Amino acid sequence: MTDIRIPEGLWEADKEGVIVTWLYEDGDTVNQDALLAEVMIEKVQIEINSPAAGRLKIAKAAESTVLPGEVIGVIA
Amino acid sequence: MSFVEAIAAKPVQKNRNERKLTIAKALNEAIAQEMRRDKNVFLMGEDIGILGAVWGYTGGLLAEFGEERVRDTPISETAFIGAAVGAANLGMRPIVELMFVDFYGVCMDAIYNLAAKSSYHSAGTFKAPMVLTTAVGGGYSDSTQHSQCLYATFAHLPGMKVVMPSNAYDAKGMMTSAIRDDNPVVFMMHKNLQGMGFLGTIQGAIVDVPEDSYTVPLGKANVARDGKDVTIVGLGMTVHQGLEAAKALEKEGVSAEVVDLRSLAPLDRDTICRSVQKTGRLIVVDDDYLSYGVTAEIIATVTERDIQALKCSPKRIAFPDIPVPFARPMEQHCLPNIQKIVAAARSMM
């Protein structure tokens, strides 16, 4: 199990970003480094790539707000 | 070959997971692969270099190919689209961006009088093998000058191809075809499908895209969904609305076929007519202006070829003949949507 985490230090810790798109569905099998999700903070788009190969479990759905360091899913 | 057929025909790769890309990423990959293959391919436009384009499809190209081949330009479409036509006439293969289609006014002479006609003027000596990328579509309150589609404006003028993908698989294959094409190709990118966070993205546009280079032919429509009671014709965004409407209609026992035009010039009249021969009913959906538009051309095509194919009058759903409103409720009222398509289909049964 590997956490999919919003990287820290990309924006100020107290500001919320938004998950715009999940490119895969819950339960899909994904490759390591596949582009999994896109997160917006103010007008900047940040890409979240898969930390491992395996089955995707989404913890925070699209349109959820997120903070730096937050876990948004796992690769099992 | 349709998208579905292409997927079915692909060799099964063991242990290959789906690789889902946005249209922006798929276009990026097509352009990079063609730039590696052909040194005459180069890019010009506003913010396509360091920024990677407002529409997100040129990121990383400046780093790989350098400033000679990835050229950030001043804000003068007149100058840099004119320069692209000249470069194309002399054997280069420029990809040049008109950031919003709404801005065509200042550079149209270069597009429709020079690029579209130079091959004809010179008996093919001075071809214009260029790709003009441009973003279309509204729905996000960007008002009159940043929300238009103008498909018919371009498709009306002979000498250019005019195309728009509805998903990332088609986007990559069509861009590869467009770059290799000896004609000028107007390559439209719908903002609601592109994969830009600040605009939202229709999920259906994000599909599996093969890593290797491939082409999707320009001028071939795709039957995106098979059906037998009614044909819904659209392109870009309206294909996805048609597919959603078809799902809703299925619950009511109505089987809708959805045709994704993919190309307006050339227009695949055969695929449209074949579908209507089967279903006998036709709805054309277009987010461009209603009058003198894509909807009229499709309906004229079907009725000219065989009016007997139709069981009832065809219907069109398009943007009314007014400048695009800024106010969200007013703009949403004007745009095509799933409910309008479902209502039209119901009224025909």
Explain what this protein looks like in three dimensions.
The complex is a heterodimer of chains A (76) and B (349). Chain A has 76 residues and is mainly beta. Chain A has a single domain (2-75), classed as RNA polymerase II/Efflux pump adaptor protein, barrel-sandwich hybrid domain (OB fold (Dihydrolipoamide Acetyltransferase, E2P), Beta Barrel), CATH 2.40.50.100. Chain A is built from no helices and 8 strands. The radius of gyration of chain A is 11 Å and the shape is globular. The model of chain A has no long low-confidence stretch (mean pLDDT 91). Chain B is of the alpha/beta class and 349 residues long. Chain B folds into 2 domains: 3-208, 3-Layer(aba) Sandwich (Rossmann fold), CATH 3.40.50; 222-348, Rossmann fold (3-Layer(aba) Sandwich), CATH 3.40.50. Chain B has 13 helices and 14 strands. In chain B, strand 2 (41-45), helix 3 and strand 3 (70-72) form a beta-alpha-beta unit. In chain B, helix 2 runs parallel beside helix 8, helix 9 packs across helix 13 (338-348) and helix 10 crosses helix 11. The radius of gyration of chain B is 20 Å and the shape is globular. The two termini of chain B are 31 Å apart. The A-B interface holds A 20-21, 23-24, 28-31, 34-35, 38-40, 43, 45, 53 and B 17-22, 25, 56, 195-198, 200-201, 203, 206.
Strand content of chain B: 15-25%
Main sheet properties of chain A? 4 strands, antiparallel
Distance between the termini of chain A: 4 Å
What is the overall number of helices of chain A? 0
Spans of at least 5 consecutive residues with low confidence of chain B: none
CATH uppermost class of the largest domain in chain B: Alpha Beta
The termini of chain B sit apart by: 31 Å
Integer count of domains of chain B: 2
What gross morphology of chain B would you assign? globular
Report the CATH architecture of the largest domain in chain B.
Answer: 3-Layer(aba) Sandwich
How is the biggest beta sheet of chain B arranged? Answer: 7 strands, mixed
Question: What order do the SSEs of chain A take from the amino end to the carboxyl end, as H and E?
Answer: EEEEEEEE
